[in-house]
Amino acid sequence: MKRYDLRHLKDDFYDRMAELIDQGLKVGEVGIFLFEVGDFSHIQKSADFVRATGHDLMNSLKFNEVDWTIVVKKVDDETRKARAEKIEAARIAAEKEKLEAEAAEAKSENQEKAE
């Protein structure tokens, strides 16, 4: 387990966190990342960021009045690739569903105008 203090980076800690996960942690190892909250949007963004990288977000906790910690477990490249493929497939399915709904709505509007 390794602990990384990213508070000095303020709102710009994502790239450094990814670098530390990729280069500083071994597969299966856990890293604790401490960052300054600033505005609370970084809490959700950090969780989304870890998910997008394919690693496991183990925990997300308020550390004190201004700081937050997230606990990340590094996963192997095969697992990351499989997760990325699932996310992409879900994105494609959602986009297809959206297009189909828009097409159905347009068809319905055209039928109403024709009547």
Structure description:
This protein has 2 domains: 1-75, 2-Layer Sandwich (Translation Initiation Factor IF3), CATH 3.30.110; 76-115. Helices cover 54% and strands 22% of the residues. The chain is built from 3 helices and 4 strands. The termini are far apart. The mean pLDDT is 91.
Spell out the key features of this protein:
single chain; 115 residues; alpha+beta; Translation Initiation Factor IF3; 2 domains; four-stranded mixed β-sheet; 3 helices; 4 strands; 54% helix; elongated
Question: What order do the SSEs take from the amino end to the carboxyl end, as H and E?
Answer: EHEHEEH
Choose one word for the global shape: elongated
* CA radius of gyration: 20 Å
Instruction: Tell me the helix content.
Output: 40-55%
Strand order of the largest sheet: 1-2-4-3
CATH architecture of the largest domain: 2-Layer Sandwich
Distance between the termini: 68 Å
- CATH domain topology of the largest domain: Translation Initiation Factor IF3
Largest sheet: 4 strands, mixed
Determine the mean pLDDT: 91
Count of DSSP E strands? 4
CATH class of the largest domain: Alpha Beta
Q: Please report the number of helical segments.
A: 3
Question: What percentage of amino acids are in beta strands?
Answer: 15-25%
What number of structural domains do the residues give? 2
Structural class: alpha+beta
The named CATH superfamily of the largest domain: TusA-like domain
- Unreliable stretches (pLDDT < 50, length at least 5) are none
